Amino acid sequence: MKKFIISGIAALSIMTFASVSRGFAANTSSNPLLQTELLPYGAVPFDKLTPELYEAAVKEAIAMQNQNINAITMQRSAPTFENTIVALERSGAELSRAVLALGNVEHAVGDPAMMQVLANVTPLLSEHEASLLLNDALWQRIRQVYEQRDAIKDQLTPEDLRLLDETYKQFALNGAALEGADREKYRNLSAKLSDLNVKFAQNVTNGMKDPASRMWVGENDLAGLPDAIVEAARAEAKAALEAEGKTDDGSTYLFTVFAPSYAPFMKYADNRELREKLYKIYNTRNTAGEFDNTPVLIDIANVRREIANLMGKKNFAEYQLQHTMAATPENVYAMLNELREAYTEPMKAELKEIEDFARLTEGPDFKLQPWDYSYWSDKLKSEKYSFNDEDMKPYFELNNTIKGVFGLATKLYGYTFKENKSLPGYHPDVKIYDVYGPDKKLLGLLYTDFFYREGKAPGAWMTEYQTEVKDDEGNRTLPLISIVCNFAKPVGNNAVLLTPYEVETFLHEFGHALHGLSAQAKYASISGTNVYHDFVELFSQFNENYLTEKEFLDGFAKHYQTGKKMPKELLDKFIKASQFGAAYACMRQLNFGFLDMAYHMMEEPLRASDSVEEFEVAAIEPVKIFDAVPGCFISPSFAHVFSGGYAAGYYGYKWSEELDADAFAAFKEAGNIFDKKTADKFHHMLEAGGTVDPMTLYVEFRGKKPTVDALLVRDGIKAAK
User: Fold this and answer.
1) Which of 151, 205, 277, 319 is the least buried, fewest Cβ under 10 Å from its Cβ?
2) C-alpha span between 681 and 677 (Å, rounded)
3) Residues 1, 508: Cα–Cα separation, whole Å
4) Using CA atoms, how far apart are residues 48 and 31, in angstroms rounded to an integer?
């Protein structure tokens, strides 16, 4: 999931200030991006937009919000909840719209012109955000209302009080309480960090497109690879040669570091030397050359530490975690270490079993290396369970899978989906769906963009073009939600068949989408996915549990040629195979979590001369899987942490995994994975967004605080009671 936060440290981003604008500056813009009345539901008129119009919209919307903020601060009336807190909340609808559209399209399209637009407006947005958060007249009004909260609480709803509390905390955490030179220092550091975040992200994207991130092979190097992967590599080679004006004789194949190419090669290619070569290409991205991110990440880590110190904290993690469920670094490390202790020995047992198995073929001196793991673990799965991921692909034809994943929302919440062909997308691959609630009323729009294409950012994410809100009369502004993936495009008339991992990814992002679509809140900044980051992944990861439930799969997982349902034996093999790799998968996530925390627990600055590689090796030592490979380290391409809003927050994936396993256990305990009573309680959490403290919401749903027990059982680490 990506929120496209402009500032890496400001949790209260420009785009969360509003989705409903009233009073103050009237919207008389001629820019189509800012005209919500051009299309039904406020849909974005992508067909009328150019890079220049995106840039102009952002600049115009900044000016409009400035007018609105001036109207708040210059009024003579004493500060009240309505004329200050609500007015601020609703002050930036146009800017929210412009930034959300720009951020997603720039990532999804990869057009150099759009990348330049984002680079152009980022300093402006950073300055605008800093000016708003450090506007002393505005802060004094917020502070005065907050200090009156006990006297006015009977006049406010619980959601009003939540907005007041969150607004005050966000401003205080982002420099508003600073004075004098410290304010200016904070402003400068925030602007610098924003620029660095964008530079890091664009280096990652450009580095993946760099010719140095490709591997050309011949026909003799394809042993072990499935036909569909070979065909895709041939198509990649043909397109690349044509783009370079070279003759294509049909004898070469191209593999890249993008997921649809990299992951299958590492899993299926028999040629160990080429697996090692591609592994090293992947894990040396952004470590040198034109797109070197090592100096960028050093600067990012140091600027974050400076900001934390300015705010009276020893390190950035201590500062950042104030506004999370975890609350403190100690609580994060308690969770990480609990998982480390539970999973380390099972992981070692997994690796030994894989290595012993490989030695039967490779000889007694074979030593398992990181480029061997996917290949030999898959071979062992096939040996132990007569299974590999390719066995399931014929049952996951894309169109059927879309119906099945959408159908999960139908069974749990009564939602239905209908394709809307009248609205424009930003690319021909985009499809749009009207989403209806159980009352048959339109709930929102869902934009889907499933296929990999050159220039598109890697991975998968959910974002929004418009956040759900209600006006004072209860009229609902519909959420406009987007999910983006990188599935392989069909070659010729071939069906698009997904791996179980890709279906899991789809279910994950769809969970985020449901969170946004289900929102029933009055205020945008606490609506939908605008919740604490270590709570937001609960709803996406919860959906993933259904991938191993036959009752769910029987509704859509049918062989694309024969129409037969997926056999129970195949699913059972998949579950056992998934559990086999669970310890390794957990430890890999702990690698990322420990690395993230190491960068943000620093109390002394990194120097330009310091080795990022050595820093990384030391950071992950407690959860090391393989010995370090010289020259290979992931920090310079760790976009989640250095440009994606997960600084001192990567632990949130495991934190949420503990939540989602515990939540799904509630359905199991009810005896029905679609149990209506349990689903209704879970749906309440989806609707609530950030209007209620997340732990309070969870305890209301579950009747208790979460524990790690259900996760250990699901992963096969602990026996079920």
Assistant:
1) 151
2) 7
3) 9
4) 9
What's the whole-number mean pLDDT along residues 122-146? 93
Judged against a pLDDT cut of 60, whether residue 24 lies above it is answered with no
As a dihedral over the C-alpha atoms of residue 110, residue 112, residue 115, residue 117, rounded to 10 degrees, the angle is -130
β-pair type (480-487, 442-451): parallel
CA dist 619 to 41, 121, 151, 626, 632, Å? 48, 35, 49, 14, 14
Helix boundaries (H) for 468-563: 500-517, 533-544, 550-553
Q: Which residue has the tokens 């550091």?
A: 189
DSSP summary character for residue 716: T
Between CA 174 and CA 163 the distance in angstroms is 16
DSSP structure string for 118-155: HHHHHHHHHHHHHHHHT-HHHHHHHHHHHHTHHHHGGG
Q: Which of 32, 25, 67, 29 is nearest to 49 (CA)?
A: 32
Which two tokens mark 254? 């191209």
Cβ atoms of 191 and 183 closer than 8 Å: no
Q: What is the rounded CA–CA span in Å between residue 546 and residue 504?
A: 9
pLDDT at 26: 58
Q: How far apart are CA 266 and CA 272, in angstroms?
A: 9
User: Hey, what are 699's tokens?
Assistant: 């305890």
**Residue 217 bridge partners (DSSP):** 253
Give the whole-angstrom CA distance, residue 117 versus residue 113. 6
Two tokens, residue 267:
């899993």
The secondary element (H helix, E strand) that includes residue 444 is: strand 442-451
Q: Do residues 485 and 107 make contact, with C-beta atoms less than 8 angstroms apart?
A: no
d(CA 344, CA 354): 16
Tens-place pLDDT, residues 276-322: 999 999 999 999 999 999 999 999 999 999 999 999 999 999 999 99
| Cα 651 versus chain centre, distance | 13
Residue 474: how many CB atoms within 10 A of its CB? 7
- The model carries a pTM of 0.81
Count other C-beta atoms under 10 Å from residue 501's C-beta: 14
- Which residue in the block uniquely carries the two structure tokens 């993936």? 485
CA distance 472 to 467: 16
Residue with tokens 């997308």: 425
* Residue 490, pLDDT score: 85
Classify residue 518 as exposed, middle or buried by CB count within 10 Å of its CB (0-12, 13-18, 19+): buried
SS3 454: coil
Sign of dihedral through CA atoms 620, 624, 625, 627?
positive
The b/e string for 168-200 (b: 16+ C-beta within 10 A; e otherwise) is: bebbbbbbbebeeeebeebbebbbbbbbbbbbb
**DSSP state string for 624-636:** --SPPPTT--SGG
Cα 717 from Cα 578, distance rounded (Å): 12
Q: How far apart are CA 349 and CA 616, in angstroms?
A: 25
| Gyration radius of the chain's alpha carbons | 25
Distances (CA, A) of 466 to 36, 167, 347, 348, 488: 10, 20, 43, 47, 28
Q: Two tokens at 169? A: 């905390």
pLDDT for residue 240 is more than 80: yes
CA-based nearest residue to 642, from 283, 304, 189: 304
Six token digits for residue 228: 């569909």
User: Rounded to an integer, what distance in angstroms lies between the CA atom of residue 336 and that of residue 483?
Assistant: 29
In the predicted model, is pLDDT for residue 25 greater than 60? Answer: no
Max CA separation in the chain (angstroms):
84
State the CB neighbour count (10 A cutoff) for residue 696: 10
